[in-house]
Amino acid sequence: EAQLVESGGGLVQAGGSLRLSCVVSGFTFDDFAIGWFRQAPGQEREGVSCFAKTDRMTYYADSVKGRFTISRDNAKNTVYLQMNSLSPMDTAVYYCNYAFYYWGKGTLVTVSS
Question: Is 31 exposed, middle or buried (0-12, 13-18, 19+ CB in 10 A)?
């Protein structure tokens, strides 16, 4: 059974950093796109960053460019999201996604001002 398990969320002050992790199991880690989405209270889920399937390039939402970095460890079936210079606007539940189909349960990031 495919599983994605996120961790690393928490409460941080504005300007701080967090690193999210997503451990993937149940399918071949490298076969499809993998990345992060987020959903703020009262808002729709939005894409944050991902590794594309075809070219393994990384993509970022404009709102996080220069602050967030996605990385992966294929040996550990894990994808990371390093988040720096956090602002209250980044407060959301962050979800790991595989193949634009499978979802983790999410991890809450709260940034205080």
Answer: exposed
Q: What is the pLDDT along the chain (113 residues), one digit of tens a residue?
A: 789 999 999 999 999 999 999 999 988 777 889 999 999 999 999 999 999 887 678 999 999 999 999 999 989 999 999 999 999 999 999 999 998 899 999 999 999 99
Q: Which amino acid is at 25?
A: S
Q: How far apart are CA 102 and CA 83, in angstroms?
A: 22
DSSP state of 26: S
CA distance to 78, 83, 86, per residue, from 16 (Å): 23, 8, 6
Specify whether the CB–CB gap between 14 and 29 falls below 8 A. Answer: no
Question: Is residue 36 within 8 Å of 44, Cβ to Cβ?
Answer: no
